[in-house]
Design a protein that fits this description.
Helix content: over 70%
Shape: globular
Order of helices and strands: HHHHEEEHHHHHHHHHHHEE
Strand order of the largest sheet: 1-2-3
Strand content: under 5%
Number of domains: 1
Radius of gyration: 23 Å
Low-confidence stretches: 381-393
Mean pLDDT: 84
Length: 393
């Protein structure tokens, strides 16, 4: 009986302390993602000679695991989040190194390792842990004045970039670099160094365009309409025109039968054709409500670690939303950047689950999680036994 009361109390305390509105918004996006994969993936599965709902079943497993991860991580303390992130970061670095030797080559890149039938992309899982590690190091400079936070983070970043470029995954390298520079800016790095970092990024992009053929191909396909490599983007644009305001209806679209990545990178195009501009606009608004809601929680934070971590996660989330949707509209070059919780893919889905779980954890209401409510509840559990009061703990 006492154990049941304790369990009920812990659940209530958790619900009171986290941003339940943000959690509900995230679960709503997960539900929309399940619907989009269910409508977009059967055509891809049949084209590959698989069972019609092959991708649907797998994605439902990933999304269910994602909800579980979000809830578990949101219950963790700051110390636990740091420990899990350190362990996760080291493990991801190890698997990224291992990928270079035993990974599966897909479209000229070696980014995945197959384990028991599931393809895992270690660099996807690295992102949330890397954000937490950098936030920890940057916050340390305010408690330990002699700690070289920026230099340690920069050295760590060179290691991560080296592993990413060896795969090669230039797009992921750009993403983690932008997130780190944003964290540096919040941590007080001077504008001079921010400008140097920006110039370095431009130089690195020019070198990637010159020496990495797949980067050259993608940029050329974006800049030159007659490059012959715009097939997916052209079909994506056609899908928006075809869908109009109200769409053709779930399952009625035809673009998914022509796009190889209609269930993954171009899933928003499927949504545009089948649900129309009004519904897809509402989906975009939902994503940005999540971003704004998260920013409002960060605004109330006093802990530098929480501010740096939450900001990094929000920037990562926003970049994926903006670039994925923009890519399908030919606003950006094509890049395998998924739409959070909507695009098919276990690594991406679980990676963002880790991000959202960490975000909910570090933005918990401390006045509830560690407050007098706990003491009041414990006091209410005082039991009269043998004429004496025994406190339940």
């Amino acid at each position: 009986m006492i154990a049941k009361k304790r369990g009920d109390y812990l659940i209530r305390r958790w619900l009171w302390s986290i941003d339940s509105v943000l959690l509900l918004l995230i679960i709503t996006i997960i539900g929309i993602g399940a619907l989009l994969v269910a409508t977009a993936s059967p055509a891809v599965a049949e084209r590959l000679g698989l069972h019609s709902f092959y991708f649907v079943h797998r994605q439902l497993i990933f999304l269910s695991a994602a909800i579980f991860i979000i809830i578990i991580l949101s219950m963790c303390s700051e110390k636990t989040i740091k420990r899990v992130s350190l362990l996760g970061f080291v493990v991801c670095l190890f698997f990224m190194l291992l990928t270079l030797f035993i990974g599966d080559e897909v479209k000229g890149a070696v980014r995945w390792i197959t384990i028991k039938g599931f393809s895992i992309q270690p660099s996807e899982f690295l992102k949330p842990f890397y954000i937490v590690i950098c936030a920890t190091l940057l916050a340390e400079r305010y408690t330990n004045r002699g700690f070289p936070s920026f230099r340690v983070c920069s050295a760590l970043h060179l290691l991560v970039l080296s592993l990413l470029l060896l795969q090669p995954d230039f797009g992921m390298a750009v993403v983690v670099t932008v997130v780190l520079i944003s964290q540096f800016f919040l941590a007080g790095l001077s504008m001079l160094w921010i400008m140097i970092a920006g110039i370095s990024a431009i130089v690195a992009t020019a070198m990637a365009y010159t020496y990495l053929p797949h980067v050259t191909k993608r940029i050329n396909s974006f800049l030159y309409a007659d490059s012959g490599a715009n097939y997916q983007v052209d079909k994506s644009l056609e899908s928006y025109v075809s869908g109009g305001l109200f769409g053709k209806g779930p399952g009625e679209g035809i673009v998914k039968t022509k796009l190889p990545d209609s269930h993954a990178d171009f899933i928003f195009s499927v949504a545009g054709e089948e649900f129309g501009a009004i519904i897809t606009s509402l989906i975009i608004i939902l994503f940005f409500i999540v971003i704004l809601r998260a920013l409002s929680r960060v605004y109330k934070e006093n802990s530098l670690f929480n501010i740096y971590t939450a900001s990094g996660i929000i920037i990562l989330f926003a970049m994926h939303v903006i670039f994925n949707i923009g890519m399908t509209m030919k606003l950006f070059p094509t890049k395998g950047m998924t739409l959070p919780f909507a695009s098919y893919g276990g690594s991406s889905t679980l990676s963002f689950a880790i991000c959202m779980g960490i975000l909910l954890s570090i933005t918990k209401r401390k006045d509830v999680w560690h407050s007098h409510i706990n003491r009041k509840f414990l006091a209410s559990q005082v039991k009269l036994t043998s004429g004496k009061y025994t406190q339940w703990t």
